[in-house]
Amino acid sequence: MPAMTVADAATRIPDLTYRQLDHWIKQGHVRCADGNHPGTGNKRILSGNEVRVVRVLSRLRAAGVEMAQAAAIARWYADPEQESVVRAEVGPGVHIEFDLTGTATREAEEANAA
Question: What's this model's pTM, rounded to 2 decimal places?
Answer without folding.
Answer: 0.68
